[in-house]
Amino acid sequence: TCLHECLQELLCIFGTGDLGRSLGQRLIQAGYRLVYGSRRPHSCGPLPPGTQVADHEAAAQSAQLIFLCVHREHYDFLESLTPQLKGKVVVDVSNNLKRDLYPEANAEHLQRLIPGAHVVKAFNTLSAWALQNGPSDANRQVYLCGNRTEAKQAVAETATKLGFTVVDRGSLSAARELEDSPLQLFPDWRLPMRLTVGLTAFFFLYVVIRDVIYAYVEQRKDISFRIMVSLANKVFPIVSLIMLSLCYLPGIMAACLQLSRGTKYKRFPDWLDRWMLCRKQLGLVSLAFASLHVLYTLIIPIRYYVRYRLAAITISQIRENKTTAFDTTMAWRTDSYYSMGVLGFGLFLLLGISSLPSVSNILSWREFSFIQSKLGYLTLFICTFHTYLYGWDKFLHLASYKWFTPPSYMLCLIVPSAVLLLKMLLLLPCVDKRLTRIRQGWERADPEDGTRKSLLT
Ligand SMILES: NC(=O)C1=CN([C@@H]2O[C@H](COP(=O)(O)OP(=O)(O)OC[C@H]3O[C@@H](n4cnc5c(N)ncnc54)[C@H](OP(=O)(O)O)[C@@H]3O)[C@@H](O)[C@H]2O)C=CC1
Ligand SMILES: [Fe+3]
Questions:
Q1: Superfamily for the 8-183 domain
Q2: What parts of the sequence cross the membrane (predicted)?
Q3: Which of 72, 179, 212, 216 is deepest in the core (most CB within 10 A)?
């Protein structure tokens, strides 16, 4: 048994709660020997088979590596264990319920409590559930940080044996960041979401006032039922088209900045940087709204209101014994409008698919930028054209401007039209040549001046 015991390292876990049990089970499966340290070693419920349990003192004494699976609020009891913990590696796995709950990171607080021990922060980004199920593709990484390299190495070795990939994040001062990371709520999505909500609210109010309230005030007609489908199907494509243009606007602005500065070695303003970094999210929201537009359009024929109107028109024509003549222009107009919509949406799907990491990873940089830039502008152009076709001849009719306001789709066309116009200006041979020279660094390259290169190459 001595050989057996000497080969298998003995580890210790403080705390017999959810995480303590799950972690223990994994450690046993990986071939470690394990002793739990508990306040009540004789009544702590079922533990993974093959483990021992002792009081904190005895457990700490017997192992070199101790996982602390106890909430931060209860750390105080460790102070009395100072002699047993001297020189030991103590792993802090704790998380907080909220950001900035304490002035100090849990792991740093722990290191101050037991200065003789080597504290390593690790495993906190995994859940007890993930540990129990073993590492899966989506949850393979263990982040760790600590002040002592040997201590980190010991923890990294254990994590590797459990099948995780270890990412070293540096000294214990990185603990705060590691503790904050499970509490993050889609940080990259904040700006795009605010924009989406703002634009949606604005255009919704706009169409409610302009369509529903206007009809009520001017003609005493209640068409509020239109909010559910008709108005929704105005707001979604409008927001989608604006968001798609907003994807491409920062790139154009960056090019204009570079042109006016005559160099690429100068940092962009912060807001532009942040805007560029959320282009993917802007595009995805836009794609989601475009899909909604497609679905809403598909249900138009089964709407009660539409079927009622169609039947009413047909019946009145039968009664009056009349037939309306076939209008070829109308056929051309509606068909090209639908066709552009379908084409635009198809290209848009392609853009969305190629932005998936598994797809973009197999594309070369040139292929990726061809799809995202060339096909992206083509998508924007087709979707804008689709909207112009929808307006057709209404742009010049005074009757379309109720209360001197343009229809919502005309209002929204301003942004994509401006983006496309600017892009065409940038494609003019003389402008394009100058921009290429700036981006190749041939023109007034002064690296002294700038701290960062542009995101666009
Ligand atoms: N659950 C999860 O998915 C994850 C949890 N964590 C972190 O792991 C730690 C433990 O979480 P979890 O296992 O869920 O919590 P539990 O409440 O399930 O377990 C905590 C354990 O701590 C011990 N304990 C409680 N009070 C005291 C005290 N006053 N003094 C000493 N020991 C005490 C108890 O063990 P005993 O009775 O044997 O002494 C108890 O079982 C937390 O810091 C948490 O943030 C991190 C990532 C994921
Ligand atoms: Fe449309």
A1: NAD(P)-binding Rossmann-like Domain (3.40.50.720)
A2: 195-217, 237-260, 281-302, 337-363, 375-392, 408-431
A3: 179
